[in-house]
Amino acid sequence: MDDLARRLGISKRTLYEHFASKAEILDALIEETFSEVDNITEQILKNSNLTLVEKIKGVINALPTHKELYDRVILEQIKRSYPEQWRKISKIFTEDWNELQALIEQGIHEGIIINKNATLIVKLIREAIQSVHDQQFYMQNNISAAEAVMQITDIILFGLISKEK
Fold first, then answer.
1. Is the pTM of this model over 0.70?
2. Which of 39, 44, 108, 161 is the right S-S partner for 58, CB 3.0 to 4.6 Å?
3. Rounded-to-integer distance, Cα 48 and Cα 40, Å
């Protein structure tokens, strides 16, 4: 609570004047964070200037700006102490990939994406992106969460083999 109040530039007392509990604050943070991602995703999908591959990359790279939701320790604390909020976060991380699924299926249909099981492709992408929660690895290797997701996306979409060799 101290950290959150400090980040917002207000006192803890002021914070509690607006929210009745920590769970309510967490609910607001979850709602704001994923609403932000939904808005970014919607803009990407509506942008007719983007190719299908650019849309796929954009949707995968649409990340929450609240870095707390990338931290495995914080997520474990939420899981232990706030099970209702954990269910919301977990559902979003594991089930809310419909837009990407549709883009992958379109790519397969158009011959842009290899003809493999779209659900499996989305699962692979989802689980690779979730590896960003291992903050210790990324900090030790001086890789930001956003950079990690971009590199993971490029590796999944374009492979490991250099085109020059």
1. yes
2. 44
3. 14
